[in-house]
Amino acid sequence: MRIIRHPLKSRLNKPVVALGTFDGVHVGHRQVLRRAVKEAGQLQTHSAVITFDPHPQEIIAPGRGLRLLTTLNERTALFCALGLDSVIAFRFRQELQRLTSREFIERYLVGKLGVRGVVVGYDYAFGRGRHAGAAELKELGRRFGFNVVIVPPVKRGHHLAKSGKIRELLSLGEFNRAVQLLGHPYRITGRVVRGKGVGKKLGFPTANLKVDPRKLIPAEGVYFGRVGPRKCLVNIGSRPTFGAGELLVEVHLLDFRGNLRGQTLTVDLVRRFRAEKQFTDVNDLIAQIKKDVARARRL
Fold first, then answer.
1. What is the CATH architecture assignment of 186-298?
2. Burial class of residue 295, CB neighbours in 10 A (0-12, 13-18, 19+)
3. Where are the domains of the chain?
4. pTM higher than 0.85, yes or no?
């Protein structure tokens, strides 16, 4: 166990912890995290979130090919924005997987942290084989002297806020519905690498991002987003007009002049404009990009 972020620089002692992986930090997760902050405030103690890296499913079921909604750094930034005092990352290994629910609670939450409270979502499962749930956690809390709060499900439209559902929507191109369940823009972080200069030749230079291979990239298309306060267009796709190739994430910063190569960009995707399209004439492509830019300026 290690504390990877500790904004208040104060000693972590007897905290109230939000417990889970929290991939995506969606609207349901945010209710759990805010409740942990509230409980800690009432008890005048620290609030903390315990997350896991790698994602437990990457170890338990590697064949699933799970893609992350948030890398650990992206998740950490979202945690800190919610006012948590500490972020604790457990390195998920097979030894941790083999612990029973009681062993995990006794060894880590009680033995190492001395928790005063634990907040989890309604569907939280833990321990060997994920056999323990909310009822057993409450019983262990009574036995070891800490309070347990179970946060009910959160729904947006017709869907419960679930990481699996968000992954599905992003992969199917239902980006705007996915963002509703997230409760925030979809973040992609990557290092700017050398490209082929196609965007520059068209009059719309792009920064090509090298993204963590575990990260879920949304369906191919053109997206509106921001890099800090600056608006951008993001093309995700294989550039079929020029002969389909590898999947690329290309960022065009509006009204920007400069060289970003080697820098790390954090891009917040806000809205999906359209699917990727193959144009028979490059001039038609340029005309469409101009329309996309004009639309981005209006937002």
1. Beta Barrel (2.40)
2. middle
3. 2-159, 186-298
4. yes
